[in-house]
Amino acid sequence: MGRRPRDLRLLPKAHLHLHFTGSMRSATLIELAGKYGVHLPEALTSGEPPKLSATDERGWFRFQRLYDIARSCLREPDDIRRLVREAAEEDVRDGSRWLEIQVDPTSYAPHLGGLIPALEVILDAVESASRETGLGLRVLVAANRMKHPLDARTLARLAVRYADRGVVGFGLSNDERRGMARDFDRAFAIARDGGLLSAPHGGELTGPSSVRDCLDDLRAARIGHGVRAAEDPRLLGRLAESGVTCEVCPASNVALGVYAKPEDVPLRTLFDAGVPMALGADDPLLFGARLAAQYELARTHHGFTDEELAELARQSIRASAAPEGVKAELLSGVDGWLAG
Ligand SMILES: [Zn+2]
Protein backbone atom coordinates (compact mmCIF):
# COMPACT_ATOMS: atom_id res chain seq x y z
CA MET A 1 0.00 0.00 0.00
CA GLY A 2 1.44 3.33 -1.00
CA ARG A 3 0.84 6.29 1.21
CA ARG A 4 -0.31 9.65 -0.06
CA PRO A 5 2.60 11.87 -1.00
CA ARG A 6 3.47 14.37 1.71
CA ASP A 7 2.56 18.01 1.18
CA LEU A 8 5.65 19.77 -0.16
CA ARG A 9 4.44 23.12 1.11
CA LEU A 10 4.90 21.75 4.62
CA LEU A 11 8.49 20.65 4.01
CA PRO A 12 10.78 23.20 5.73
CA LYS A 13 13.32 24.57 3.28
CA ALA A 14 15.63 27.48 2.62
CA HIS A 15 15.13 29.59 -0.48
CA LEU A 16 18.47 30.87 -1.73
CA HIS A 17 17.77 32.03 -5.28
CA LEU A 18 15.11 34.68 -5.64
CA HIS A 19 15.52 38.05 -7.36
CA PHE A 20 13.97 41.18 -5.94
CA THR A 21 11.64 42.45 -8.70
CA GLY A 22 11.21 38.91 -9.97
CA SER A 23 9.59 37.91 -6.68
CA MET A 24 6.64 40.28 -7.22
CA ARG A 25 3.05 39.05 -7.39
CA SER A 26 1.49 39.66 -10.82
CA ALA A 27 -1.50 41.40 -9.22
CA THR A 28 0.83 43.79 -7.41
CA LEU A 29 2.68 44.59 -10.61
CA ILE A 30 -0.59 45.40 -12.37
CA GLU A 31 -1.64 47.64 -9.49
CA LEU A 32 1.67 49.49 -9.34
CA ALA A 33 1.76 49.91 -13.11
CA GLY A 34 -1.65 51.56 -12.84
CA LYS A 35 -0.43 53.84 -10.06
CA TYR A 36 2.51 55.07 -12.15
CA GLY A 37 0.90 54.93 -15.59
CA VAL A 38 3.34 52.30 -16.84
CA HIS A 39 2.12 50.33 -19.85
CA LEU A 40 2.66 46.63 -19.28
CA PRO A 41 3.20 44.34 -22.26
CA GLU A 42 0.87 41.39 -22.43
CA ALA A 43 3.67 39.03 -21.49
CA LEU A 44 3.53 40.55 -18.00
CA THR A 45 -0.24 40.53 -17.56
CA SER A 46 -1.46 37.32 -19.18
CA GLY A 47 -0.67 35.20 -16.12
CA GLU A 48 1.18 32.78 -18.39
CA PRO A 49 4.98 32.63 -18.39
CA PRO A 50 6.17 34.38 -21.57
CA LYS A 51 7.89 32.25 -24.15
CA LEU A 52 11.50 33.31 -24.06
CA SER A 53 14.53 31.74 -25.49
CA ALA A 54 17.36 33.18 -23.50
CA THR A 55 19.83 30.88 -25.14
CA ASP A 56 20.03 33.40 -27.95
CA GLU A 57 20.93 36.98 -27.11
CA ARG A 58 17.69 38.43 -28.45
CA GLY A 59 15.65 36.23 -26.17
CA TRP A 60 17.77 37.24 -23.20
CA PHE A 61 17.39 40.89 -24.15
CA ARG A 62 13.63 40.45 -24.26
CA PHE A 63 13.66 38.86 -20.83
CA GLN A 64 15.74 41.77 -19.48
CA ARG A 65 13.33 44.28 -21.07
CA LEU A 66 10.36 42.69 -19.32
CA TYR A 67 12.32 42.69 -16.08
CA ASP A 68 13.20 46.39 -16.52
CA ILE A 69 9.57 47.34 -17.09
CA ALA A 70 8.52 45.50 -13.94
CA ARG A 71 11.35 47.11 -11.98
CA SER A 72 10.28 50.57 -13.15
CA CYS A 73 7.05 50.09 -11.17
CA LEU A 74 8.95 50.05 -7.86
CA ARG A 75 9.50 53.69 -6.98
CA GLU A 76 8.54 54.53 -3.43
CA PRO A 77 9.66 53.03 -0.13
CA ASP A 78 6.09 51.74 0.31
CA ASP A 79 6.37 49.78 -2.95
CA ILE A 80 9.60 48.21 -1.71
CA ARG A 81 8.05 47.33 1.65
CA ARG A 82 5.05 45.79 -0.04
CA LEU A 83 7.19 43.76 -2.44
CA VAL A 84 9.32 42.31 0.35
CA ARG A 85 6.36 41.58 2.63
CA GLU A 86 4.48 39.80 -0.14
CA ALA A 87 7.56 37.85 -1.22
CA ALA A 88 7.93 36.72 2.40
CA GLU A 89 4.25 35.74 2.59
CA GLU A 90 4.50 33.72 -0.61
CA ASP A 91 7.61 31.99 0.67
CA VAL A 92 6.00 31.12 3.99
CA ARG A 93 3.03 29.64 2.14
CA ASP A 94 5.46 27.42 0.22
CA GLY A 95 7.21 26.15 3.32
CA SER A 96 10.25 28.36 3.10
CA ARG A 97 11.63 29.06 6.55
CA TRP A 98 14.64 31.05 5.44
CA LEU A 99 14.86 33.35 2.42
CA GLU A 100 17.90 35.05 0.95
CA ILE A 101 16.66 37.60 -1.55
CA GLN A 102 18.99 38.94 -4.20
CA VAL A 103 19.08 42.61 -5.15
CA ASP A 104 21.15 45.10 -7.07
CA PRO A 105 20.31 48.34 -5.21
CA THR A 106 21.69 50.36 -8.14
CA SER A 107 18.47 49.69 -10.05
CA TYR A 108 16.30 51.26 -7.35
CA ALA A 109 18.67 54.07 -6.40
CA PRO A 110 17.38 56.74 -8.84
CA HIS A 111 13.91 56.78 -7.26
CA LEU A 112 15.05 56.35 -3.69
CA GLY A 113 17.67 59.04 -3.36
CA GLY A 114 20.84 57.11 -4.16
CA LEU A 115 22.54 53.82 -3.54
CA ILE A 116 22.82 54.02 0.24
CA PRO A 117 19.24 55.15 0.91
CA ALA A 118 18.02 52.46 -1.52
CA LEU A 119 19.85 49.70 0.32
CA GLU A 120 18.65 51.06 3.66
CA VAL A 121 15.02 51.08 2.51
CA ILE A 122 15.45 47.48 1.32
CA LEU A 123 17.09 46.32 4.54
CA ASP A 124 14.42 48.03 6.67
CA ALA A 125 11.75 46.36 4.57
CA VAL A 126 13.46 43.01 5.03
CA GLU A 127 13.63 43.45 8.78
CA SER A 128 9.95 44.36 9.12
CA ALA A 129 8.81 41.60 6.77
CA SER A 130 10.80 39.09 8.77
CA ARG A 131 9.23 40.33 12.00
CA GLU A 132 5.72 40.30 10.56
CA THR A 133 5.86 36.88 8.91
CA GLY A 134 8.30 34.97 11.12
CA LEU A 135 10.40 34.06 8.08
CA GLY A 136 14.18 34.30 8.40
CA LEU A 137 15.10 36.86 5.77
CA ARG A 138 18.48 38.08 4.56
CA VAL A 139 19.91 39.86 1.50
CA LEU A 140 22.46 39.06 -1.18
CA VAL A 141 23.72 42.18 -2.90
CA ALA A 142 24.27 41.31 -6.55
CA ALA A 143 26.43 43.17 -9.03
CA ASN A 144 25.51 43.28 -12.69
CA ARG A 145 28.07 41.78 -15.03
CA MET A 146 26.91 44.04 -17.87
CA LYS A 147 28.30 46.99 -15.91
CA HIS A 148 31.84 48.06 -15.17
CA PRO A 149 33.81 46.01 -12.62
CA LEU A 150 34.41 49.24 -10.69
CA ASP A 151 30.66 49.47 -10.07
CA ALA A 152 30.82 45.97 -8.66
CA ARG A 153 33.59 47.02 -6.29
CA THR A 154 31.52 49.94 -5.04
CA LEU A 155 28.64 47.58 -4.42
CA ALA A 156 30.87 45.08 -2.65
CA ARG A 157 32.11 47.76 -0.25
CA LEU A 158 28.55 48.85 0.39
CA ALA A 159 27.43 45.27 0.96
CA VAL A 160 30.21 44.73 3.50
CA ARG A 161 29.23 47.91 5.33
CA TYR A 162 25.77 46.49 5.87
CA ALA A 163 26.88 42.99 6.80
CA ASP A 164 25.56 43.43 10.33
CA ARG A 165 22.23 44.71 9.04
CA GLY A 166 21.15 41.74 7.00
CA VAL A 167 23.50 41.43 4.02
CA VAL A 168 24.96 37.92 3.99
CA GLY A 169 26.35 37.45 0.51
CA PHE A 170 27.52 38.92 -2.74
CA GLY A 171 26.35 37.83 -6.19
CA LEU A 172 26.87 38.51 -9.86
CA SER A 173 23.98 38.32 -12.30
CA ASN A 174 22.92 38.97 -15.88
CA ASP A 175 24.32 37.64 -19.13
CA GLU A 176 27.13 35.16 -18.51
CA ARG A 177 28.19 35.45 -22.11
CA ARG A 178 29.36 39.01 -21.47
CA GLY A 179 32.60 39.77 -19.69
CA MET A 180 34.65 37.34 -17.66
CA ALA A 181 34.13 36.31 -14.07
CA ARG A 182 37.70 37.26 -13.40
CA ASP A 183 36.95 40.91 -14.23
CA PHE A 184 35.02 40.90 -10.98
CA ASP A 185 37.60 39.15 -8.82
CA ARG A 186 38.51 42.28 -6.85
CA ALA A 187 34.88 42.99 -5.99
CA PHE A 188 34.47 39.42 -4.77
CA ALA A 189 37.68 39.62 -2.76
CA ILE A 190 36.31 42.70 -0.99
CA ALA A 191 33.06 40.88 -0.27
CA ARG A 192 34.78 37.72 1.02
CA ASP A 193 37.22 39.68 3.17
CA GLY A 194 34.20 41.40 4.66
CA GLY A 195 32.76 38.02 5.64
CA LEU A 196 30.20 37.74 2.86
CA LEU A 197 29.43 34.56 1.03
CA SER A 198 30.39 34.45 -2.65
CA ALA A 199 27.40 33.40 -4.76
CA PRO A 200 27.77 34.40 -8.42
CA HIS A 201 25.59 33.14 -11.28
CA GLY A 202 27.25 30.60 -13.57
CA GLY A 203 26.50 27.52 -15.62
CA GLU A 204 23.12 28.68 -16.86
CA LEU A 205 23.56 30.33 -20.25
CA THR A 206 27.05 29.00 -20.72
CA GLY A 207 28.55 25.64 -19.95
CA PRO A 208 30.86 24.11 -17.34
CA SER A 209 33.67 26.61 -17.95
CA SER A 210 31.61 29.42 -16.43
CA VAL A 211 31.13 27.35 -13.29
CA ARG A 212 34.86 26.67 -13.12
CA ASP A 213 35.50 30.41 -13.48
CA CYS A 214 33.19 31.11 -10.54
CA LEU A 215 35.14 28.61 -8.44
CA ASP A 216 38.62 29.63 -9.53
CA ASP A 217 38.27 33.39 -9.91
CA LEU A 218 35.51 34.27 -7.44
CA ARG A 219 35.93 31.43 -4.91
CA ALA A 220 32.24 30.76 -5.05
CA ALA A 221 30.71 29.05 -2.02
CA ARG A 222 27.48 28.72 -3.96
CA ILE A 223 26.70 28.95 -7.66
CA GLY A 224 23.56 30.64 -8.98
CA HIS A 225 22.14 27.90 -11.24
CA GLY A 226 25.28 25.87 -11.96
CA VAL A 227 23.13 23.20 -13.67
CA ARG A 228 25.31 23.00 -16.73
CA ALA A 229 28.07 21.55 -14.59
CA ALA A 230 26.16 18.36 -15.42
CA GLU A 231 27.98 18.37 -18.77
CA ASP A 232 31.32 17.72 -17.08
CA PRO A 233 31.69 14.75 -14.70
CA ARG A 234 35.01 16.03 -13.35
CA LEU A 235 33.46 19.35 -12.45
CA LEU A 236 30.57 17.55 -10.76
CA GLY A 237 33.14 15.67 -8.69
CA ARG A 238 34.85 18.89 -7.75
CA LEU A 239 31.58 20.55 -6.68
CA ALA A 240 30.59 17.52 -4.66
CA GLU A 241 33.97 17.23 -2.98
CA SER A 242 34.17 20.89 -2.04
CA GLY A 243 30.51 21.03 -1.03
CA VAL A 244 29.70 23.97 -3.29
CA THR A 245 25.93 24.22 -3.58
CA CYS A 246 24.20 24.87 -6.89
CA GLU A 247 21.11 27.05 -6.60
CA VAL A 248 19.12 25.18 -9.22
CA CYS A 249 15.96 26.82 -10.59
CA PRO A 250 14.27 24.20 -12.79
CA ALA A 251 11.14 26.16 -13.79
CA SER A 252 13.30 29.12 -14.77
CA ASN A 253 15.58 26.88 -16.84
CA VAL A 254 12.61 25.60 -18.82
CA ALA A 255 10.99 29.05 -19.19
CA LEU A 256 14.23 30.50 -20.53
CA GLY A 257 14.88 27.58 -22.82
CA VAL A 258 18.09 26.42 -21.11
CA TYR A 259 16.36 23.02 -21.24
CA ALA A 260 13.40 22.19 -23.44
CA LYS A 261 11.36 20.22 -20.90
CA PRO A 262 11.23 19.86 -17.10
CA GLU A 263 12.55 16.30 -17.39
CA ASP A 264 15.64 17.60 -19.23
CA VAL A 265 16.87 19.65 -16.23
CA PRO A 266 19.67 17.43 -14.92
CA LEU A 267 18.46 17.27 -11.30
CA ARG A 268 19.23 13.54 -11.10
CA THR A 269 22.70 13.95 -12.51
CA LEU A 270 23.64 16.56 -9.90
CA PHE A 271 21.92 14.73 -7.06
CA ASP A 272 23.50 11.37 -7.85
CA ALA A 273 26.92 13.00 -8.20
CA GLY A 274 26.55 14.31 -4.64
CA VAL A 275 26.45 17.97 -5.65
CA PRO A 276 24.42 19.84 -3.02
CA MET A 277 21.48 21.75 -4.45
CA ALA A 278 19.17 24.46 -3.23
CA LEU A 279 16.11 24.62 -5.45
CA GLY A 280 14.96 28.17 -6.16
CA ALA A 281 12.30 30.09 -8.06
CA ASP A 282 14.59 32.75 -9.61
CA ASP A 283 11.86 35.10 -10.97
CA PRO A 284 8.38 33.75 -10.24
CA LEU A 285 6.85 36.94 -11.67
CA LEU A 286 8.13 35.92 -15.10
CA PHE A 287 8.28 32.15 -14.80
CA GLY A 288 5.03 31.56 -12.95
CA ALA A 289 6.33 29.05 -10.40
CA ARG A 290 7.28 29.64 -6.79
CA LEU A 291 9.35 27.55 -4.41
CA ALA A 292 7.18 24.51 -3.66
CA ALA A 293 6.58 24.08 -7.41
CA GLN A 294 10.30 23.43 -7.93
CA TYR A 295 10.15 20.52 -5.47
CA GLU A 296 6.94 19.31 -7.16
CA LEU A 297 8.80 19.31 -10.44
CA ALA A 298 11.54 17.14 -8.93
CA ARG A 299 8.87 14.76 -7.67
CA THR A 300 6.75 14.65 -10.81
CA HIS A 301 9.34 14.77 -13.57
CA HIS A 302 12.34 13.17 -11.90
CA GLY A 303 10.75 10.69 -9.53
CA PHE A 304 12.32 12.11 -6.37
CA THR A 305 10.96 10.20 -3.38
CA ASP A 306 9.93 11.97 -0.20
CA GLU A 307 13.25 10.90 1.37
CA GLU A 308 15.12 12.46 -1.54
CA LEU A 309 13.00 15.62 -1.46
CA ALA A 310 13.73 15.89 2.25
CA GLU A 311 17.43 15.58 1.44
CA LEU A 312 17.10 18.42 -1.11
CA ALA A 313 15.50 20.55 1.60
CA ARG A 314 18.35 19.69 3.98
CA GLN A 315 20.88 20.68 1.34
CA SER A 316 19.19 24.06 0.93
CA ILE A 317 19.22 24.65 4.67
CA ARG A 318 22.87 23.64 5.09
CA ALA A 319 23.93 25.97 2.25
CA SER A 320 22.12 28.97 3.71
CA ALA A 321 23.70 31.71 5.75
CA ALA A 322 21.32 30.97 8.62
CA PRO A 323 22.85 30.80 12.10
CA GLU A 324 23.66 27.24 13.25
CA GLY A 325 20.80 27.20 15.75
CA VAL A 326 18.28 28.07 13.05
CA LYS A 327 19.73 25.42 10.74
CA ALA A 328 19.43 22.78 13.46
CA GLU A 329 15.81 23.71 14.08
CA LEU A 330 14.93 23.60 10.38
CA LEU A 331 16.74 20.30 9.88
CA SER A 332 14.76 18.74 12.68
CA GLY A 333 11.63 20.14 11.01
CA VAL A 334 12.61 18.19 7.89
CA ASP A 335 12.87 14.99 9.95
CA GLY A 336 9.46 15.81 11.40
CA TRP A 337 8.00 16.16 7.91
CA LEU A 338 9.34 12.73 6.95
CA ALA A 339 8.12 11.16 10.16
CA GLY A 340 4.65 12.66 9.75
ZN1 LIG B 1 19.11 34.30 -10.97
Please tell me about this protein's structure.
One of its GO terms (biological process) is purine ribonucleoside monophosphate biosynthetic process. Keywords: Hydrolase, Metal-binding, Zinc. InterPro entries: A/AMP_deam_AS, A_deaminase_dom, Ado/ade_deaminase, Metal_Hydrolase. This protein is of the alpha/beta class and 340 residues long. The protein has one domain: Metal-dependent hydrolases (TIM Barrel, Alpha-Beta Barrel). It contains 15 helices and seven strands. It has a seven-stranded parallel β-sheet with strand order 1-2-3-4-5-6-7, sandwiched between helices. The chain is globular, with a radius of gyration of 19 Å. The model has no long low-confidence stretch (mean pLDDT 95). It binds zinc ion. Zinc ion is lined by residues 17, 19, 173, 201, 224, 282.
Q: Could you name the ranges where pLDDT drops below 50 across 5 or more consecutive residues?
A: none
CATH classification, class level: Alpha Beta
- SSE order in H/E notation? EHHHEHHEHEHEHEHEHHHHHH
What general outline do the C-alpha atoms trace? globular
**Mean pLDDT across residues:** 95
Give a list of the ligands: zinc ion
The counted number of beta strands is 7
Rounded to an integer, what's the Rg over CA atoms?
19 Å
Query: What would you say the CATH architecture is?
Result: Alpha-Beta Barrel
By secondary-structure content and strand pairing, the structural class works out as: alpha/beta
The CATH topology comes to: TIM Barrel
Q: Give the helix proportion (percent range).
A: 40-55%
InterPro entries: A/AMP_deam_AS (IPR006650), A_deaminase_dom (IPR001365), Ado/ade_deaminase (IPR006330), Metal_Hydrolase (IPR032466)
Protein name: Adenosine deaminase
GO molecular function: deaminase activity; hydrolase activity, acting on carbon-nitrogen (but not peptide) bonds, in cyclic amidines; metal ion binding
Pfam family, one: A_deaminase
